[in-house]
Design goal:
Length: 370
Amino acid sequence: MKYYIIAGEASGDLHGSNLIKALKKEDTSAEIRCWGGDLMQQAGGELAKHYKDMAFMGFLEVLMNIPTIFKNISYCKEDIQRFNPDVVIFIDFSGFNLRIAKWAKQNGFKTNYYISPQIWASREGRISKIKRDIDHMYVILPFEKEFYEKKHGYPVQFVGHPLIDAIENTPLQDNVSFRQENNLDSEKPIIALLPGSRKQEVQKMLEVMLSVKKDFPNYQFVIAGAPSLPDEFYAPFLKGDKVEYVSNKTYTLLKHSHAALVTSGTATLETALFEVPQVVCYKGNWISYQIAKRIITLDYISLVNLIMKREVVKELIQNDLTTKNLKSELSKIVEGTERERMLSDYKSLKEKLGGKGASEMAARLIVKNV
């Protein structure tokens, strides 16, 4: 069968690549065309568009790039018609994907959604579009099944979280060779800096993350470079105080880190699954933040806290993200009782997420439902 998959961010590329591998096992004659990134291409998908050309962060940035977004939507529709797939599979990226889903459904294509739009966080009214345009939904967070089925009467399948598979399937360097290869101190514990994957957020996050470095002289700060950004983008942040940088090795970095400062998003859950105590950071464009504050209905922004339904990791958001606050919160998790409490909570988190096999289960259901 023929599958058309649309992912629009680095995390979607990761989960899309594992889905492609699982689909090829489930359907040995599978033909797959996709919007995604290098990982999906390496897994066997024919790449129609790279997510680097599509990832715009925040309301203001989206407004500034509307002509490009509409061009991408038109091209996507034309490309789907040319490929004529048996099913179109959407991975997160709701602003774009729900528009394509409406068109795809109207044009007789089967529509499956893997990794739900976060309508439980904002604009819950989009449930009407999902009910109308999506034939089958596969969710990855335990509370999403209850949200869709009990609150909205829309049946979904909970397949577990694909990050568990992604982490297990990623080969990781041992501590000694990782430190040697990246010129890291062989003794100092590592504090990982995960500032995000888009230029705008990285620029905002790194300045404040690095501002606390001088207060932790017995630790080495290491920036996790995103695969979506070139190495030279990080060069200005590496001047002055000695700060290290590793490119496209986030999982290995987390494996060997003592603590982390993490921009909100999927990375907060990845950090928790590696059992690294963390402080969650977020500071957006002022206009974007003011709009988001009025439409997002959640008590927390990190996946860790949302899944656990309580504060497991500290969130420093917008005006609370200051050098003083960050220093205070980081101090609490590099040693002492707060560190131990967080590590204990991470174990409960893993239990809630279920076991491995999310990609395989989603692939089986997709093939079955076509």
